[in-house]
Amino acid sequence: FKSGRGTLPTRKGSNRVTTSKYKWYNFVFKNLYEQMHKFGNVYFFAISLIMYLGEVTPLYVGTIKAFSTLGVLLMMMAVSAIMAGLDDLKRHENDREINHSQAHCLVPNNTPNKFFDSKAKNWEDVNVGDVLIIKEDEPLPADLLPLYCSGEGGNCYVSTANLDGETNLKLKTAPSATQAKFAESEIKAGKKDVENLLPVVHKLSGTVVAEEPSGNIHDFKGSLTIDGSSKSLGASQLLLRGTVLRNTAVCIGIVVYCGGNTRMILNSRPAPSKLSSLEFFTNTSMKLILVVQALLALLSSVLHDHHKGYFHHLWYVFPRKDLWLSDLPAYWLTFFTLFSNLMPISLYPTTEFCNAMQSFFIKNDRDMYHQDESGDFAARARSSNLCTELGQVKYIFSDKTGTLTQNVMELKRLSIGGKTYGTLSQQDGFNGKEEVEKSRQTKDQKPAVDAFLEALSVAHTVMATQKDNELIYEAESPDEHALVTAAGNLGFRFLQRKGDTLFCKVQDQQNPREKSYKILATNAFSSARKRMSVLVQYTDEGNKKQDPKFMLLVKGADNVMLERAVGGDGDSSTTSSTTNHAKLKEDLREFSKEGLRTLVIGSKQLDEKFVKDWVREYEEANRMTHGREEALEKAAEKLEKDITILGATAIEDKLQDDVPETISKIRQAGIKLWVLTGDKLETARNIGFSTKVLDNFMNIQVIDEDEEGGVTLDKAVESLCISVSQGREGAIMVTGKQLTRILGNSGEKKKFLDSAQLCKVLIACRVSPMQKAECVRLVREGIPGAAKPSWRLWRKGKDPPITLAIGDGANDVPMIQEAQVGVGIAGREGRQSVNNSDFAVGQFKHLQQLLFVHGRWNYLRACKYTKFTFWRNMVQVLIMFSYTWSSGFSGTVLFEDWLRLTFNGFGTIPVLALGAFDQDIAKDAALAHPHLYEVGRDGKELNVRKTLETFGSAVIHASIIVSLSLLAYPGMVLWGSGDYYTFGSAVYTCLLVDLTCRVAFLTSSHNKYTIGAIMFTLCGYMFFLVAYPCVKFMADIFEPNMYMVPYHMVSSYYFWFYLLASPLLAVAIDVFVTFAKQHLQPTAVDMLLHDSRLRVDACEYEPLTMFPESCQPNKTRGAPPTGTDAAADGKCQLDLSRYGQQELPCKRVHFTARGVATFLGFVGLVLLLLGLLAYHQSQAAAQVRLVYGDSGNGLTNLAGERPMGTKDDEFFGPKHCKRGTYAKELVCNVKVPREMKPPILVYYGLGSFYQNFVTYLKSEVPAELAGKTVSESARAFKCRGEHTRKLGSKSIVPCGSKATSLFNDTLTITGMDISKTNVAWPSDVARYSNPTDYPKRENTLWMHDLYPNVVSAEKGVKSEAFVQWMRPAALGRVWNAYGWLLKDLHAGDNLELKIHDEFVTPNGSSKMLVLTERNLLGGRHDGLGLCFMVCGVNCFGMMAVALFMNSRMHGHKTKH
Description:
Low-confidence stretches: 572-576, 785-797, 1091-1096, 1102-1131, 1193-1198
Strand order of the largest sheet: 14-34-33-32-15-27-31-30-28-29
Structural class: alpha+beta
Shape: elongated
Helix content: 40-55%
Largest sheet: 10 strands, mixed
Strand content: 15-25%
Mean pLDDT: 84
Number of strands: 50
Radius of gyration: 43 Å
């Protein structure tokens, strides 16, 4: 810099910081790239591509349109993208706010005698070399080198809470070379005015050499060259971005690092990515499903290959011969794409939505809202994907200080010169003040006490400031604050620091005075050193002219201090201090037994020569740019030895509220607790008993032979094994020294882990932050079955234990990040643990609410929606697989493409409410019975057994839907709703109703949202049926054959019987199976809720209590906020409504014996009544059935030639027919068995005849049927096989297998007229149309040319017989209406039927004609009625079994 200006090139936006992930131009592509890393998304994209190839190429027979899968994929990805986008919008807003903040930058001014102006500049435009003015309470926009600070001696204070989470202020100092120049100007001006300092800035020129950008916030290496003199720079000369200037009026600094090079940004790395066990399960399950899907496709393709010999001879099917692949691999692809819905694509957005909701409820839980003098804190959920992990924790790793305790330190006891002062009492503060004062008045005790108090008041890094005439201490730790405060109360009051001089006021009755100490060096505390020391220069009191004296003051942990003491553990010489050390150890042991934290205080007098040499070495180490920390530690080690022990302090850290109760419940829940602390073993032991971590009934093994009662690891293992065999609980206490040795030996490590698994409690003492993380890693990786992301289908061993680490300080961060679930406590050590955690709470007691309420609920909800999603897709695919048997193994999809497209949407909506609101038991019950937590801890709801149960249930539901649909089919056919599209829609509707009933059954507590989601699903589906198939222009766009399908579907009474009975029967079986499991293998919840009657309990909650004024209810309610932390800005933003507190009015249903029996009896009665009605209607419909074309093989069962209930006198075979006057005429005589009332339906039947064969089904051009002219290429694409498009040189219009295979037999009944109107859907007749040039087009064969007996030249394609034929049958047979008889038929009437036998049936097919009365349920078919009655009787049987099981259980209880 030169003349106060940086000489480096500048650029706009160099200090811009971006935390957002996306830009407007890359959002789509980047988000798409991220989402394609999900296995399911990649799978469905690949499937869509394969489907498209099947559509446009002859690679294989494509039966599903690509859009039906790609559309679902895009919708689901859009949901995820929207949530990601909303998250990023928050980040953009935060970035914009920060980057547009204003900084005061000095810019040149050419006005005479005015060198600079202070100009506002956006933070993002600040450059390296800019000189900035920072005023009190302003944040720093970049990393600065302070040139001037208005504080005493060039000092300033900064708050680093935003950077490292620590709440204490840090002291920073301007380089003396620059500070001195400003000080001269201050003296001349007589006041500290920024305007008077600007000329000094103009005169400054020099060079700053800084190390490369680094993320180390505690270190800085650089140098400042000014006026030819070079000075080293350290961490105290670097003001970091994100910190705030405090207690200092103004600071002028030059920018050294900006933008992404600042320490804050380099430290803003994302927390390690953690996958939940649910995600592992989902990924593994999807891989397994992929294998099942491939095997199912292989089975279907093998079946197709086996039966193709029969189907290839069917003249109307014309199998594809242009396929690129051979039949087996080609049809494997056909079926693989057909069963692609087995993969639950909707599980991804479902999980994201439910996780967001669960995070929202955690953040707003008023029972986890904490208020104290330090402020308010609401719970935070920073990793929403781990919400379910909270319900599966097996191991908790806890810090002690600030986690189990309040981190509010008070000095309670002292040991000085072999004498103890103070007692542990409930009284606040130190109660031994009078004893200390008496000792200070005693000649032989005063020197020892004063030396001890002097060390407390000088050996620290505390800062003192004045505020409202009150002395305020800013300390790096609560311990230091407590010690300095206590020393002041006892007569040695620390006053202030001025530069490198520290001032104390000594309150002495004989000689009150103020003392000063020059701080020559400070050897900082670290977790490795476990001590800190200061080297000071001072003069004797009252004799300032004497040479200065030098003294080292040290305080630290007892083990490291005694090792370095004169006559201590590390000194082999025998001195008079040995006795004092023994007494000190005894006192320390006593303090520890009382649960107090101890520090040993020492001092050492030094000669001037040694000090000068050492300080020179210290300064050289401090100037080093590489290896500085190691060199400083080495220098400190030379100094800190042969220390004279002055005494020890004992500080009480009070327990937090309800810690013993919380730990007791954690143990009741079966969670193993590891307490990892830096305290002494005795202190940890006593805290263990006071917090109920330990109890007197435990076998407590101390693994350290150097400790009292300590044993070797082998002996501990042996003792613990004996205890476990005797049913006695075990506990382990281990020291950090032994832990280091154990973790360094693989054999010892395994033995230690095995022994730890035998215990419910482990306490590790004197452990470092890294050892805490190593303990977590030991459990996560050491126990067999550790989960790792893998493409393997199965993982060996059991699932790994879910670990939770909880702590409040920066030293707990490694442990928190290592654990599967990290929980930070907003304590007094800053927010480092909170900022690096997955969840954050205000107190340890909030673990009860977090684990036993939210965790347990979230786990059960996740299990339910996960199993339901897999179940739902299994049912659909099993139905589709069963349909392949009825469609010639051709790969026909039962459900129309656009209808199938809605499955993931309508199938997901109802389960979203379940995943957000379901509560199997009330909150109070969950807290009162911690043992109920076992369900998640042991993974009882999501394992192999539960997966098999889910599959079994899917098979049952699919079997019910398929069986009843086949039995309902005959009745639906006779009401004109048995075509492929209507039947598929009916089955789909039943499936949708069944899955909503399944959701209702799985939901434990019903509120307005769970019920509303189900109703919304059903209403939404009804709206879809009206808006799509019933609106002509919509149907014309998407699928013309779907036009008016819903109308004809609901017109069939059989459909309503089927729709009512299927879900009822399926739910009845679910209820019975669940009840049986509850009685034969009851869970802890089942035993808690057991009663002799059905309970429908209201969810009762306490009235909403008044909350502190600082936390007013959030008026807005609805979907959870994304990407923000509740109360992140320190203000309460809780939603205190019933919604936000999960206290919505609801009904919680528990199925008990009486309730189950009542429900099963009701279902049985309904089915029995439906069965009786269906059977009565079937028997009431008189019929005459004539089979005039015999089948040639055994595949005629599909034809339904003789439906169930057909009597012998109603059935007539070929023997009743004879040839007529010409070759193709058949004359058949039948006898009417009983009275038949008009209108009498006449219909023909063909079987087996596969109009649902995929190549046949798709062989039509809808536009051509609507009378439009279509290109030959379009006709060729749709109507494969030239014979379906041309006959000779003439084109067939309309083309296709359906049109060219029209049934053209005709029937006349002697003496009767057959009305051939109203046999086709009027809507179909209306949408069919002849071309404008009909019938004049040249070289064209029309339908009346091919089938003159059936299609009239006048009507063309609008002939009803043709229109009806073009609506293909759903099953492998055809029952189509031929006409109506409008006169009575009397019993005994002989009818002569003359048939023009024109239609050629394939070998194995039959032809028949039927005359039947048509009532509400169609005609004769007893199958559905008998099935209903059998199912009804079975329901009564299940009811009896339920009552019997309940009586046995009550009898068993009475007996005992």
